[in-house]
Structures are given as C-alpha cells and as structure tokens.
Amino acid sequence: MVESNLAKQLELSRSTVRMALNTLVHEGLVVQKPYAGWQVVEIDQADLWELYHLRLALEGEAAAMAAEWASDVDKQALHSLYQQYCQLCQNKPKDNRAISQMDWQLHQQIVAICGSERMQSQYKQILYPLQAYIAITHQNYDLSQSALSHQGLVAAICAGDAVAAQQQARANITPFTPE
C-alpha cells in the first residue's frame, strides 16, 4: 500500500492516512517496508501457535491477578458486563459479530481489572491479530452459548479465587490446532 494512493482513494490527507497506518502498525496488523510502502501482516501457522500460547499465558495470569486485586466496583462491572453478554447470546443468538465483540470486551475487562499497564499493553499486541484471525476462521461457529462458557471465569474472579480464575481463563480459550 502506498500512502499517497490511499490518501487519494480515501480523499484524506497523507498525514491522516499515515497516522492511521501507524496505529495499525502498533496493533500488529500492518508493517512499513522501507522504500516500498505499507503491507498487511501475514499470519502463518507458527504465528498463530505463538499468539495462542501468549494469549493463554497473559489471560491466565490476568485472571488470577484480577481475582486477587478486583475491587467491589470492578467485580460489579464485570458481573454486569457478563449479564449483558448472556442477554445478547439469548436475544441475538445468530449475531456472531456482536457476540464475538462482547466476548473480546469481557476478556479485555478482565485484563484491565488485573491492574497491570504492562499486561494490558502486551495483551493489545496480540489482541488485534487474534481478532482478525478468529473473525475470518470462526464465521460459521455457533456462538449462542459462548457467554455460558465464561460463567466459571467470572464467578472465580468475583469470588477472589485466583487459582480457579487462572484455570478457567486458560480452559476458556479455544485450543489452537495447526492445519
């Protein structure tokens, strides 16, 4: 992708396009190639394996930390978000996009509750490539019951049980199986 071409196509200034592309770089979706322009990141099987294991480690630890550090306000907010998630699955069981977004929102909330800026930063580095991959590969999945699979995780965090929260977080992540 060439900045000037994108700016012309989108009828935006080059600086606006450059800022957007730099944001995509930080999200791990685009790389800048010297003297060649910008390129969408290709994710291969090795990348997916690595992202999956990073997600297991980060979300498991974040859930344990959230269980230890969550305030009553944090727990109430998490429980409220979980209830919204359950209602969405019940009221719009075929809206995979909305359900998937709510799922990611719940996981991001847990990472935020853990209280570690570094954990949040690292999580964001893997979040966007994973979201893109899952959106492409999970289009035909039945997500209508996905909220229920988070019940144990939310309960463990709200109960302050770090060990159970970590186990539930790791068990909740769909295993990666190379093709």
Q: Which structural category fits the helices and strands?
A: mainly alpha
Number of H- or I-type helical stretches: 8
* Estimated share of beta-strand residues: under 5%
The arrangement of helices and strands along the chain is HHEEHHHHHH
Q: Tell me how many strands there are.
A: 2
Globally, the shape reads: globular
Q: Which range best describes the helical content: under 10%, 10-25%, 25-40%, 40-55%, 55-70% or over 70%?
A: 55-70%
- Mean of residue pLDDT? 87
User: Largest sheet, if any?
Assistant: 2 strands, antiparallel
Description:
- The chain has 179 residues and is mainly alpha-helical.
- 70% of the residues lie in helices and 4% in strands.
- The protein is built from 8 helices and 2 strands; from the N terminus they run ααββαααααα.
- A two-stranded antiparallel ribbon has the order 1-2.
- A hairpin with a 3-residue loop joins strand 1 and strand 2 (37-40).
- Helix 3 packs parallel to helix 7 (151-159).
- The two termini are 29 Å apart.
